[in-house]
Amino acid sequence: MKNVWFIRHAESEANAGLPTSEPDLIALTPKGHEQAEILANSINVIPDLVIWSSYLRAQQTARPLLEKYPDVPTLVISGVPG
Q1: Tens digits of residue pLDDT in 23-35
Q2: Interacting residues of 59 by C-beta distance below 8 A, sequence separation 6+
Q3: To 10 degrees, the CA torsion angle through 39, 24, 75, 35?
Q4: CA 44, 35, 73, 58: dihedral to nearest 10 degrees?
Q5: According to the 3-state scheme, what is the secondary structure of 52-75?
Q6: Residue 78 and residue 55: Cα distance in Å, rounded?
Q7: In this structure, are residues 79 and 24 in contact, taking their beta carbons and an 8 Å threshold?
Q8: Structure pTM?
Q9: Which of 3, 15, 4 is nearest to 60 (CA)?
Q10: Exposure of 55 by Cβ count < 10 A (0-12 exposed, 13-18 middle, 19+ buried)?
Q11: Contact, 66 vs 72, CB < 8 A?
């Protein structure tokens, strides 16, 4: 049996009400980076695959998990057109 986790990106600048202009370049806030670290620390099973979108906030959310499990295969998908 496989487990599939769908994880939304951590808090982004847009979530925090900061001005943004390019959807694919919206970064995480300091709180979002902390949330991504907490998430990575809570996952104690080596994933078979990590998939994230090409959006910066998704990459930044995935980064701590990929640093924890550097040998896990990855797949980047194009961001969804707005």
Answers
A1: 999 999 999 999 9
A2: 52, 76
A3: 0
A4: 160
A5: EECCHHHHHHHHHHHHHCCCCCEE
A6: 8
A7: yes
A8: 0.89
A9: 15
A10: buried
A11: yes
Q: Residue 41 burial (CB < 10 Å; 0-12/13-18/19+)?
A: exposed
What Cα–Cα distance (Å) separates residue 8 from each residue in 1, 5, 39, 71, 77? 23, 10, 11, 22, 14
Rg of the chain in Å (alpha carbons): 13
Evaluate if residue 18 carries a pLDDT over 70: yes
DSSP 45: S
Distance of alpha carbon 7 from the chain centroid: 7
In this predicted model, what pLDDT tens digit does every residue of 53-66 receive, in sequence order? 999 999 999 999 99
- Parallel, antiparallel, or unpaired for β 74-77 and 50-53? parallel
For tokens 């998704």, what's the residue?
58
